[in-house]
Amino acid sequence: MPKPKNKQSPGRHIDTRLVHGTERESWPDGATLPPVVYSSAFAYETAGEMEEVFSGRREGMVYSRLANPTVGDLEKRVTQACGARGAVAMSSGAAAIAMSLLALAKSGDELIASRLLFGGTYTLFTKTLADLGVKVHLVDPSDPAAAESLVGPATRAVFLEAIANPSMSVPDIHAWRKFCDSHGLALVLDATLLTPYLFNPEQVPADVAVFSASKYLAGAASVIGGLVLDTGRMDWVGNRRLSFAELRPEGEKAYLARLRKRLLFDCGASLSPMNAFLMMVGMESLGLRLERQCATSLEIARFLESRPQVRQVNYPGLPGSPSYELCRAQYALPGSLLSFRLADKAACFRFLDALELVQRVTNLGDTRTLALHPASTIYASFWKHEQEEAGVTEDLIRLSVGIEHSGDIISDLEQALNAI
Length: 420
Ligand SMILES: *Cc1c(COP(=O)(O)O)cnc(C)c1O
Hints:
By secondary structure, the chain is α/β, with parallel strands linked by helices. The chain folds into two domains: 14-282, Aspartate Aminotransferase, domain 2; 286-419, Aspartate Aminotransferase, domain 1 (Alpha-Beta Complex), CATH 3.90.1150.10. It has helices at residues 14-19, 47-55, 69-82, 93-102, 119-131, 173-183, 195-198, 254-267, 273-283, 286-305, 324-330, 345-354, 384-389, 406-418, and strands at residues 86-90, 110-114, 135-139, 155-161, 186-190, 208-212, 226-230, 312-314, 337-341, 359-360, 370-372, 396-400. The strands form two sheets. A seven-stranded mixed sheet has the order 1-7-6-5-4-2-3, with helices on both faces. A five-stranded mixed sheet has the order 8-9-12-11-10. Helix 5 links the parallel strand 2 and strand 3 (135-139). Helix 3 (69-82) runs parallel beside helix 9 and helix 12 packs across helix 14. It starts with 13 loop residues before the first helix and ends with a helix. Residues 1-8 have low confidence and may be disordered. The structure holds pyridoxal-5'-phosphate (PLP). The site of pyridoxal-5'-phosphate has 17 residues, from helix 4 and helix 5.
C-alpha cells in the first residue's frame, strides 16, 4: 500500500494541520484516524529491551499511566498545531493546572497569579497550594509594575488567564513577559478560552500553556481532559531560579520530563485513550466551530449592548471593551465567552428561567449555547470579597456561545430579557 505523505508540514496553515494527523504512516490498514489503543501495559521481547526503555535509553510504551499511543497522538497533534516543544495530556483541565505548577513550585516557594481566575483555580491557589506550603500572591493583572515588590528569592512563576473568566478581561502578555524575563520567572498561561487554535506562542510568549480540553476540543462537551504545553521558549535547566538541575540529562525536555516521569508517575492524573481519540476527532473541526462561535458572540454582544435591560456587556471583541486593543493585538479571534450585567440577582434568575433554546449549564466551549449565574453556582462557596476579587457580581450572567444559528440564539435572549 502506498504510504500517504505526512501532511503535517509546519509551513501549512493551522486549519490544515488540525485535520491531518502526525503519525498516520504507522496507523493500520491506511486508517485515516488513529487507532484507539486500549491497553494498560506493553510487552517486550527481552528483559534487556525492557531495561533500556525503563532507563530512558530507548523510546517505548511501558504503562498507560505514563504514556499511551492514542494519548501520545493527541499530544503530538496539539504540539504541532501550536508549533510548541511538547505536551503532556492530563485527566482534566484542573489536573493540568495543578500539575503545571507542581512541576515548578514546592513547599516554601511562591507564585504570582492574576486575581481574575476561574473558580477551581482560585481555590487551588488559596486553599490546596496554600496547605502544601506554596504561597500564591494574587495581583491585579492589568498592573505588572505593582507586582514588582512581591518578587523574592522563592518566587518561581507567574500565572495568568489569557482571557479571564468570567470578567472577560485580557492581560498584557508582553508586559508580563518582560516582568518574568527581568526576574527569570516562568510564565504560565491558562489558554483554555483560546484553545490550541487561537494560541500562537509566537504572538503570545508564554513558557507554558494549559488548556482545559474538556471545553472546545471534542466539541460537543462529551469528555473531560486537559493539556500542559511547553512552548519551547524556556531553557529549563539553564534557569537558576527554577530547580531543573537534576533533570539536566533530559535537556530541553526537562519540564515535560518532570510532568510525565514525576507527576504522572506519582499522581496519575492520566487521560484515557478514548477521551484523547474524541478530542482528536473534535479538533479537526475546531477552527470552523470557533470562527462561527466568535462571529456569533460579537453579534450577540452588540445585541445585548442595545438592550435597555442590560447594564454592561463584557466581551473583548467588542469595540469599546477595555480589553479590545490588547485582544486584537494578541489573539486571532476574541473567543466565544461573554458576560453581562442585569439589574440584580432576581433579574438574572428570571432571565435564566425564561430561556427556551439556551440551556442552563455550567460549562463553556460546547456546540450548544449555555448560560449561568456565576455568583450562585461556580462561585457560591466564595466569600463576597473573594467573588469581587474574581470579578463576579450578583447581577452577572455568563454566556458561552455555541454554533447554533445566531438569529435563533438572539431571539431566545430577546424573549428572555423581555420576560424580566
Ligand atoms: C473549565 C476550566 C478549567 C478547568 O478545567 P476542567 O477540564 O473542568 O478540569 C480551567 N480553566 C478554565 C479557564 C476553565 O474554563
